[in-house]
Specification:
Rossmann fold; globular; ornithine cyclodeaminase, domain 1; 35% helix; 2 domains; single chain
Length: 361
């Protein structure tokens, strides 16, 4: 005999990795990214309405663990995420994440979910959104420098949202490039594996750098970058980790998510603290110019910000309204009398003993 003691108030929808993958396959990877772009765009337009704080980071020599919270006054969201470049040597993910969305009105969670896959989708969506507003008109060729776990999402997002037709791949690890090329073989993109970053960049309209080493690095040197391109620099996301030569920054019009965080974590940590940058939301909201002219170099120094995760969580919450790809978890205590939590525990003891009493009767 089983006695059910859980009420609907105790149930919170939970999306596992398996269900996230199935949901994305139901929708389609490219379409899911495009849908998240819509949520991002809406939230960037109302950027001032959000609570904003740099992520709370615990750094170690091996990597970083971060909490990324925000709220718009109606909903509250946070993400737990790590970044450990050494993990791949042990067969582990460099980045893992989970997140939660809650009602500000009651404080009750309304969604708990994996965010490793969801972060990959929202990162690609953010790059696509930035490229749409900042990049050259009708871009056709993407140079993807760094062919790890994020690369395919970046390529597919830029294909769907910006019309990219060709992706040129380079990674210091040829196996990563082979993996990425194989995964994109049936994507509709022309895929070119390159032997150097210089060859990958040749003829590219958009350059995306997404490398994992936690150190000051020069993935792109100044002489490699010509006029008219757009760069998504998304690999540098913590203090001491960069991808671009300083001179590229000095030649570029720089756009960021949240300036106080990017000054510490982004490629612009190489520049003076008062070097001018524009926050992307200002462009999307029509408060700042994007690309000055066809010859300008635009740089999106993307480090990832909590509002982007909030947008992705809201997208997922809404997607679940018409999808069965979740389970209900009993994670909220719901006593009959809100003041009698101890009594609820004692009554559970009686329920635990009930099957024995029935069996001996």
């Amino acid at each position: 005999m089983t006695v059910t003691t859980v009420s609907d108030k105790a149930h919170v929808p939970f999306v596992s990795v398996e269900n996230m993958m199935r949901l994305v396959l139901d929708i389609g990877v490219e379409e899911a990214i495009a849908q998240i772009v819509g949520y991002l765009e809406n939230d960037f337009r109302r950027w001032p309405s959000f609570d904003k704080t740099p992520r709370v980071a615990a750094h170690s020599k091996e990597g970083v663990i971060e909490l990324m919270p925000t709220s718009d006054g109606v909903d509250y969201g946070f993400k737990y995420v790590n970044g450990h470049p050494k993990n791949t040597k042990d067969g582990l993910q460099t980045v893992t994440a989970f997140g939660l969305l809650a009602s500000v009105d009651t404080g009750y969670p309304v969604l708990l979910t994996e965010m490793t896959v969801l972060t990959a989708l929202r990162t690609a969506a953010t790059s696509a959104l930035a490229t749409r507003y900042l990049g050259p008109r009708n871009p056709k060729t993407l140079a993807m420098i760094g062919n790890g776990a994020q690369a395919e999402f970046q390529a597919l997002g830029l294909k769907q949202v910006c019309g990219i037709k060709e992706v040129r791949l380079y990674d210091i690890d040829p196996a990563a490039t082979r993996k990425c090329a194989a995964n994109l073989a049936r994507s509709g993109l022309t895929v070119v594996a390159c032997q150097s970053a210089e060859k990958a960049i040749t003829g590219a309209d958009v350059i995306t750098t997404c490398t994992a080493d936690k150190q000051y690095a020069t993935i792109l040197t100044d002489n490699m970058v010509g006029s008219g391109v757009h760069i998504n620099a998304i690999g540098g996301d913590c203090p001491g980790k960069t991808e671009l030569h300083r001179n590229i920054l000095l030649r570029s019009d720089i756009f960021v998510e949240y300036t106080p965080q990017t000054r510490v974590e982004g490629d612009i940590q190489q520049l003076d603290a008062d070097h001018p940058v524009t926050e992307l939301w200002e462009v999307i909201a029509g408060q700042a110019e994007s690309r000055a002219d066809a010859s300008a170099i635009t740089l999106f120094d993307g480090v990832g910000f909590a509002i982007e995760d909030f947008s992705a969580l809201c997208w997922l919450r809404d997607a679940l309204q018409t999808s069965p790809r979740y389970v209900l978890l009993d994670i909220i205590a719901d006593p009959d009398d809100p003041r009698d939590l101890y009594g609820m525990i004692q009554r559970e003891r009686l329920r635990m003993d009930m099957p024995q009493a029935v069996a001996s009767a």
